[in-house]
Write a structure and sequence with these properties.
Belongs to the IFRD family. The protein is mainly α. The protein is 64% helix and 2% strand. A hairpin with a 2-residue loop joins strand 1 and strand 2.
Length: 401
């Protein structure tokens, strides 16, 4: 998987303890007022027959409008479990507007936990529905509310959900370009965003960069984004450092791709700046500070060895993952960013969607899978133009840059 660390760089340990560094690689600090939680476990729904599933779905949707908090919470949990855990576009077809309307109704009166579940549900709905400008437009007001929350965790979920909505629902690349500019302001160290929101903003930029006109966008914004990401490598937060490193790798990869002909990274990054960047990446790729938890060091070294190889040598990552009966190979940072975002949206329902959701087979072509049932679903439920629409925005995955 990893490309290796070709030469020793920056062996010296950075002085002092990073205040706020996590005990493990999966932890990320949050602002006061946030509820720090692990991703919710999905209720098992794949064993239900269609009749039982529809009954459970209708009851859950009805419960979203109940006054009792416990009833609403149970409804949200079931809705998320069905949307994320089992691809069922027929259920969604007649009730997406209702669910989104219920989630919008919880913006002012709902609890923080309900809003967080709402953000997760919207992200999963975007992946289930696919191209739908009207769905994105309908959900946009509530997503903006989430983004502006004082809760670091809710803001992060809102940023991730909105980026997913733009990535899969919107065909106009101008929206992605404009949102990346917004995201850069959120991730800036001078903003009031907490570490979760900052990391989520940079992850969202990595997701959306491949679907914008790269030459025109980089000519205006490459230096700003690279400065943002480079400064973020010094963050005391593990998730922020990793998101910054992956963003840097994605930028160098995209800036060197055939699609970026006419854009020269060397015009944006002089030798001194490149050496300083490589030194920072080298430090992170060889982290040995005793003040950093062992698991964090191990994970960080693995990630930043790949990042360093991409910036230094133009090497891309190479990761093969078996999901269900299919095996997928990711050989670009763009594809990995998309996979990470989809995985975060679908939680433990990832395998079910990879098996039945034609959107994911359009985004991530597999090297061995029985596509007969998927082809039938694609023509009957999605329409014959699905592939043509997705090819325009997602060609980067098929070609592996």
């Amino acid at each position: 998987m990893f490309c290796g660390y070709s030469r020793q760089r920056g062996k010296q340990a950075r002085g002092g303890k990073r205040s706020g560094d996590e005990a493990t690689a999966s932890e990320a600090g949050s602002e006061a007022g946030s509820i720090e939680t692990a991703p919710p476990a999905l209720v098992v729904v794949d064993e239900l027959n269609e009749e039982s599933l529809r009954e459970k779905w209708e009851t859950a949707v009805d419960n979203l409008g109940e006054r009792a908090k416990a009833t609403r919470a149970a409804g949200l949990e079931t809705v998320l479990s069905i949307v994320a855990g089992r691809f069922s576009d027929e259920l969604l077809e007649g009730s997406v507007e209702t669910v989104v309307g219920m989630i919008k109704g919880m913006v002012r009166k709902g609890t923080l936990a309900e809003k967080m579940m709402g953000a997760r549900i919207l992200a999963a709905i975007f992946v289930s529905v696919g191209i739908s400008q009207s769905l994105y437009d309908d959900a946009l007001p509530v997503l903006r509310d989430y983004e502006s929350s004082r809760s670091d965790e809710l803001a992060a979920l809102g940023l991730a959900a909105r980026a997913m909505g733009i990535f899969v629902c919107v065909e106009e690349p101008g929206l992605a370009s404009a949102y990346i500019v917004e995201l850069a302001k959120v991730a800036d160290s001078g903003s009031r965003a907490g570490p979760r929101a900052s990391a989520a903003a940079m992850q969202a930029i990595s997701l959306l960069l491949p679907v914008v006109p790269v030459v025109a966008f980089f000519q205006d914004h490459f230096h700003t984004l690279l400065t943002l990401a480079t400064d973020s490598l010094d963050s005391p937060d593990f998730a922020v450092r990793v998101a910054a490193g992956k963003l840097i790798a994605s930028m160098f990869e995209l800036g060197s791709a055939p699609a970026a002909a006419g854009f020269d990274i060397d015009d944006e990054v002089d030798n001194r700046a490149r050496d300083e960047l490589l030194d920072k990446l080298g430090d992170l790729a060889s982290e040995s500070s005793k003040y950093v938890a062992r698991e964090t060091r191990k994970s960080q070294r693995s990630i930043f060895r790949d990042v360093l190889a991409s910036v230094e040598d133009g090497t891309s990552p190479d990761l093969a993952i078996t999901i269900g009966k299919a095996r997928f190979t990711f050989t670009s940072w763009a594809a990995l960013a998309a996979y990470d975002a989809v995985k975060a949206a679908l939680l433990s329902g990832l395998a079910a969607h990879f098996s039945h959701n034609p959107l994911l087979t359009d985004i991530f072509p597999s090297i061995s899978i029985d596509n007969s049932s998927l082809s039938a679903n694609r023509h009957v439920k999605r329409g014959a133009d699905r592939d043509a629409k997705r090819d325009a925005n997602l060609e980067f995955v098929h070609n592996d840059l």
